[in-house]
Specification:
This protein has four helices and no strands. The protein is mainly alpha-helical. The mean pLDDT is 78. One of its GO terms (cellular component) is endoplasmic reticulum membrane.
Amino acid sequence: MGRKDASTVKLPVDQYRKQIGKQDYKKTKPILRATKLKAEAKKTAIGIKEVGLVLAAIWALLLAFYAFFYLRLSMDVDPDLERDED
């Protein structure tokens, strides 16, 4: 018998959420569109850390190739070649 009254009473949280939803509708469409585009751009933007990590990886790879070929070519030089000039 008291349940009929309980179904019509809304919780304060639900009323607050409904009020917040109404405030979003009051904003104009260009403002909402701009906010959405700004949030999406921020989400997809490349950060400084990612750029730095990529540059460091490329630099390390080039340094490794250089060291490999430097050591490989410096060991192939035969010291006996200079003595053959006789």
